Amino acid sequence: MNTTVKKSTTFLCNSIRFYSKKSALPRKRSYYFVAGTSTLLCAGGFTWYESDSQARHVTLAVKRMSIATKVGISVAIDYKKTQSKKYSSEEEQLRAKSECHQRCAERVLVGLQKLGGIYVKLGQHVSAMTYILPIEWTTTLSALQDRCDPTSEEDIRKLFLTDYGVPLDQVFEEFDWKPLGVASLAQVHKARLRKEHIDQGDWVAVKFQHPRLDEFCRIDLKTVSFIIDTIKRMFPDFGFEWILQEMQESLPQEMNFEHEASNSLRLKENFSYERKHHKTALVVPDVIWAKRRILCMEFIEGARIDDLDYMKEHGIDPSQVSTEITEIFSKMMFLDGFVHCDPHPGNVLIRPAKDPKSRFKFDVVLLDHGLYRTLTEQLRTDYAHLWTSLIRGDEEGIRNYSLRVGCRPESHRLFASLLTGREWSTISTANLSSDRDTTEIRRVSGRAKGFITRIYDILETLPRIVLLLLKTSDLLRGLDETLRQSGDKYMTYALMGRFCAEAVWIDAKQHLIRRIKESPSITATLGLIKSLFKAWWEYQTLEYSLWMYELQSNTRASWYLIWHHGVAKSSRENKENERLKHTDAAAAVASAT
Known about the structure:
This protein has 593 residues and is an alpha+beta fold. Among the domains are: 3-145, no CATH class; 490-587. It has helices at 3-20, 27-51, 53-84, 90-115, 118-127, 135-141, 153-164, 211-234, 241-254, 257-270, 272-276, 308-313, 318-336, 377-392, 395-404, 412-420, 424-428, 438-450, 452-461, 464-483, 491-518, 522-592; strands at 172-175, 181-182, 186-193, 203-209, 282-283, 287-290, 294-298, 303-304, 338-340, 348-352, 362-366, 372-374. A hairpin with a 3-residue loop joins strand 6 and strand 7. Helix 3 packs parallel to helix 8 and helix 14 (377-392) crosses helix 21. It is globular and about 75 Å long. Belongs to the protein kinase superfamily. ADCK protein kinase family. One of its GO terms (cellular component) is mitochondrial inner membrane. This is ABC1 family protein. It comes from Mucor ambiguus. Keywords: Membrane, Transmembrane, Transmembrane helix.
């Protein structure tokens, strides 16, 4: 603490103690003295706050803790009161619960918006859990998906100077202070580097972490932990501890942009063969340089992946985009074992293809590489086996491989519904490709809420990495349903099945070759070679059948587009002819009169 401030504070305190002993002071003089002393104390406190960064941090931390704790406890008390009341009818009880859900969700929303940072990220995560939480919660907290406050220009300049070592204007020739996007952890600006910093002087995208996030991350996580522990004591069935555990693991990685740059480079390497031979539409922006809290990368212009009007304007077929996204993420999950775990629409862009040799009419640009998970070889192959069983409707396989990825015994049906978003009756009849209508969605959601304690148990015991795979599957399913509005719904599962089959074959091949090398006799070796050939034949047969299916589906889709284009063109021509007829008739009437 500053010495001058310390002396001033001591003097003021001694003065207060001295004058407090003199009860005979006139009231008016006493009033002026108290007012003057209060002013001096406030001024001294403000000087201390501004001059001592530790004091400022402690003050703000206490304020943030008090806001979060107040909201958490008020929500817990409201639920406790609502549950302990007696109601005259079930309808009255349901109405009271709904009103309690709404009140508490609104309190939490206001608190999260005040606090920002990881609290907003927590709220975004919770708002996506539509299959578990009441609609009042998910609807209210969905406001957090698009509302994040930007960091000011002053704070951005300070952050850049601290982390990069020179003023921002010395590095960038032009800088657009209006953010391209603002998320819970960071915001992105468009800028042009000075030519001494890059050969071309091209436009770049610069990602800045919100400065306050770094300052309060640790204390915020401890506060959330305290709130969750408090709620757990009041409601023993509460099962959301896993959200905090996942955030504790993920946040340090997401907050290190050097780690994000490394993930980006690794993904590019994983798809380098496909890019070289024009077998993928995936584009990953080049990283120019990275600091822990600042990331400078190639600027790529495009539209969100769910912008159907943009695709229509540029002649891009949404179903083909969905097919390519399925292929990209299937390769990540089932072959590479290195998975981008946050593919929400804001992190995926679409644009017309820039490479004239590309067999695609579009590029899929993947952004935000902070949240990845690396699957072990065992988990990768078990997950491929699990999805193969889900696609086939093989309950024994689903039970076996659900257990192997960490699900509790006899919870495989509920786990399968969580993973696919479908009813067990749909899964067990190998009918995942059927349309998911609103009635089924309501039934799945309703049954999930009926099994809420069992779902908590499943989520609590699953490995954190499998929880992220669940989240990724849910986001991809939402994208697929948005994009694949026409065409073959089975295509998604046919594509996934092909990648799963390849993963299963690679696993079987490696296992059998290892056993052949260790085989003690010729007879055993011949038996293993026979098994190897059988596994290869099964894979080739499945690969061929799926390839034929894709070919037929693509042919049907192409004919549909040609027919639709012809019908649309014919309709336009008919309308134009009708318009000309009316115009000619009107002209004839006008000339006659």
